[in-house]
Amino acid sequence: MLTESRRRAYLNAMQVVHWLPRAELPFAASSRPELLLPVAPVAAPALEALPRAEVPAAPVVRPSERVKIEIPRPASIAKAASKPAEAPVEAPAPVARPTPVPPPRFALQLLRAGNCLLLVELVTGQPFQSRDPSYLLLKDMLRAAGLPDSPQIIGEPVRWPLLVRGSLDQGPDAARDFVQGFVQVQMETAPCGCLWLVGLPAMRFAGGVQDDAYYQELTVPGLGTAWALPGLELLMDEPPRKAHVWQAMRRLMARWKSAE
Hints:
- About 30% of the residues lie in helices and about 15% in strands.
- It has a 6-stranded mixed beta sheet with strand order 3-1-2-4-6-5, sandwiched between helices.
- The relative contact order is 0.11.
- The chain is of the alpha/beta class.
- It is rod-shaped.
- It folds into 2 domains: about 5-35, no CATH class; about 105-255, Uracil-DNA Glycosylase, subunit E.
């Protein structure tokens, strides 16, 4: 059972202003009879029947009394849509740095036999020993060529790269300049009739040629006449190559014999 104060609180919460009970409510305030009378309809005045001067004017709304709302016009929307979008600024592409070429690795020994200099590849990097199979093969080749079979070893082996660390350029071009300069100094000290290039590193870094120049006679600027030969280890692993060596040797033998 609701009291009058609580009932009005509920009605106010539901935003009910006028209400009539269907039955008598206990603890309710006394009803006001005037609220039960029917409401007479109010006739709206005919504006057309009034004189023109008496038509009430529309109320003037001052700008300060309302907030102006901007409505986008179709023309402005089309203009904004037709405006080309700005292209994104692309970041500059990184500059590709040249890939550093690793230094070549080889060991060469320079020897002198009669009127010839021999630049020979050391596969193991160690100097020749008197009983090494590769050194015995070299002695056989010198005897067949009519040269002393006990060649004179000139200096220490040329080992490349020269330095393990450091910023010094030790690429292929630097290796070629070093080897050619080393041999040229020895030739200026004691000229020779022919330079034997034994092994691919000797051919590449002294003569500037590759394995397609095997058994050929070359003319190297600053070094004169040279003869390109496979390495001693390769000749032992592939004996048929020895026949090509002997054939080329017979053609070139006159060059170092005539210069004696």
